[in-house]
Amino acid sequence: MKKGKIVGLEGSFAIAEAVRMVNTDVISSYPITPQTHIVERLAEMIADGELDAEFICVESEHSAMSACVGASAAGARVFTCSASQGLELMHEVLYIPSSMRLPVVAVTANRALSAPLSVWCDHSDAMAIRDIGWIQIFAENNQQAFDLTVCAYRIAEDKEVLFPAMVHIDGFYLSHVIEDMVLPDDEEVADFIPEYEHPFVLDPESPVSMGCYGPPFIYTEAKKAQEVAFGKSKYQILETWKEFGETFGRYYSPVETYKMEDASIALLTMGSIGETAMLAVDEMREGGKDVGLIRLRLWRPFPFTELREAVKDVELLVVLDRAISSGMGGPVCSEVKSALYDMREDLRIVGFIGGLGGRDITIEVFKYMVNRALEYPEKEEEFEIIDVRE
Amino acid sequence: MIEICIYGRGGQGGVTLAELVAHAAIQEGKHAQSMPAFGPERRGAPVLAFLRVNETERIKIRTEVAEPDVLVVLDPGLLQVGDVVSRLKKDGIAVVNTKKSHDEMKSEISAGRLATINAMSIAKGILGLPIVNTTMLGALIKATGIVKLESLEEPLKERFGKVATKNIEAMKKAYEETVVR
C-alpha cells in the first residue's frame, strides 16, 4: 500500500498538488473567489519551474474554457477551475468538451449566485450545470479533494470515457481550510495516471474536423451516442475508484453510507457537510433514533442503482439541498424522488433547503430536519427552507 | 478537542495565526483545522478565524466555532465593538493584546481566565510593524500549551522566509512576558 506523508494543506493547495503530480500540460483559468488560491498556486508552480505546463492567461471564464477546448482538441492534458458567476459565464462553452468528447478536468469551488452578491458556499453553481454532460463529483474534505481530482484525470482520459470531469469542493469550507491529510509521493501518483493519448486530435499531418454542423438527420444520433457513452462512463468511474483504493487505501463510491445497516431514517447530503452530518447521526442515535447517512459522491452520471440499494430498507429519507430550483424546490431532492419513484410506495421522501450563501449547517439543523420530517407525516408543502429568520 | 476563535482586523494576520498553529499541530502529529470566516476582505474591518486542534481524533465538524475554549483578541478595540467575550465557554480563556495592566483588563471583561500581553509594543519593537499575529502566537501558547513553541519555527520559516527570525523572536518574547491568571 502506498503510504505518502501526513501534511497540513489547504483544500485549494491540495488540488494544485494533484494537478501538478499528474503532470498537466495546459492550464487556463480566470481567478474568482473562492477558487482563487487554486489558480494562484498553479501559476506560482509554473513560474517556479515545479510544473512544466503552459498557463494561458485569459480575460474571462468564457475564454478560459475556450482555451481549454482548443488545447484538449490538440491532445493536451488540460485543467481549469472556477466558481459561481465565473462558471456561469463559462456555461455556453461547457457543452463543447462534453459533446466533442474532450476530457478537460475542472474544479469548482462551489459558491452562491447573485443577487444578493455572495462569495460564500452553496450548490447553486453546481446545479446550474447538471445537464451539460460533465462527470460531476463532490468532495467532502481536503483528502477527497486531492484524491478525487487525481482520479478525475484517469476517468476522463480513459478511452472508453473521453468526457470532461468536474470535482466540486465547497467554497471556503474546503478551499480555504487547512487540515491534515495524506499526500502521496509524486511517483506514486504518476504511476497511477497512465500516459494520455486521445484517439482523434487536431494534427495538420492527419486532419480531422471537430464539432461539425449537425443537421436534423444526424443531430439526434450524435446526442444518443453521447448519452449512451456518458451513462457507460460509470463503469470506468467505479473501476478507477476501486484501483485507487487498492493502491492508496482510500476507497470511494458513487453513493457512500454511514451507519445505514439498521437505519429506518436516512439523511442525504452532498459535499463538505458530510462529516458534520455523521456527528449529527451519532448524536441522534444516542437519543434513540435509528438514523443513517447517505452522501452522494457522484452526481453525474446519476447513481440510480447505488441509491436504490442504499435506501432499500429505509422508511423515511430526508434530503438536504444547498440550492433552489426556482418554482420546483431542491434539485437534489427532485432527482432523488424521480430516481426512487417506482421503487416503493412506503418510502417517504422529505426535502429541505438550507446552507444557502454560506449559512452554516449545524448538528442542531440536522436534528431539526429529522424531527420536522417525523412530526409531519403528510407535509403540505413540497419542501421547506430551513434555518430562516422570519 | 480545543476550539479557538481569533478576533482581529483585516491586515492584522488573524487568519495566518490560525493557519500557522494548524501547521504546527499537524507537524506534531495532531489533527487540526483552520477555517477563516471571510467577510468583506479589507484592511481594518473585523475578521474572525477559527482553529480546532484534536490530539487523537480526526476533526469532523465543519462549522463555525460557536462556543470557543479560547479567544484570541488581536485588537483590544474589538472588545468594545460587539459580542466578543460572551460566547467564550465558562472555564475558557481569553488571550488579549492590550497595553492595560492585567488587573485592569480583568476588571473589564468577564472571561473565566485571562492572559494579557502588550503585543503591539513587542511587534513594533522587534518587527517595526504594528502587526501582532506572530507575537500573539507566543501569548496563545503560554496560555494554552496547544503546541510546543519550537513547533512553530518551521511553519514561520515556511511562511515568512528571511523575516521569520524576527517573528520567532517576537513570539518568544511574548511567551516570556504574557501574564496568565
The CATH homologous superfamily of chain B: Pyruvate-ferredoxin oxidoreductase, PFOR, domain III
Structural class of chain B: alpha/beta
Low-confidence segments of chain B, given as residue ranges, are none
Shape of chain A from CA axes?
globular
Mean pLDDT of chain B: 94
* Largest β-sheet summary of chain B: 7 strands, mixed
Q: Given the structure, what is the number of helices of chain B? A: 7
* CATH architecture annotation name of the largest domain in chain A: 3-Layer(aba) Sandwich
Order of helices and strands of chain A: EHEHEHEHEHEHEEHHEEHEEHEHEHE
CATH topological fold name of the largest domain in chain A = Rossmann fold
Shape of chain B: globular
Keywords for this entry:
heterodimer, A: 390 residues, alpha/beta, Rossmann fold, 7-stranded mixed β-sheet, 40% helix, B: 181 residues, Pyruvate-ferredoxin Oxidoreductase, domain 3, 7 strands, 22% strand
Quick summary of this structure?
The complex is a heterodimer of chains A (390) and B (181). Chain A is an alpha/beta fold.
Structure description:
The complex is a heterodimer of chains A (390) and B (181). Chain A has twelve helices and 15 strands. Chain A has helices at residues 11-21, 36-47, 61-73, 84-99, 124-128, 142-157, 186-192, 216-248, 274-286, 304-310, 331-340, 363-375, and strands at residues 5-10, 26-27, 54-55, 78-82, 105-110, 135-138, 165-170, 178-183, 255-258, 265-269, 291-296, 298-300, 316-321, 348-353, 383-385. In chain A, helix 1 (11-21) crosses helix 2 and helix 6 packs across helix 8. Chain B has a single domain (2-180), classed as Pyruvate-ferredoxin oxidoreductase, PFOR, domain III (Pyruvate-ferredoxin Oxidoreductase, domain 3), CATH 3.40.920.10. Helix content of chain B is 37%, strand content 22%. Chain B contains seven helices and seven strands, in the order E-H-E-E-E-H-E-H-E-H-H-H-H-E. In chain B, strands 2-3-1-4-5-6-7 form a seven-stranded mixed β-sheet, sandwiched between helices. The two termini of chain B are 22 Å apart. Chains A and B meet through strand 1, strand 8 and helix 9 of A and helix 1 and strand 2 of B.
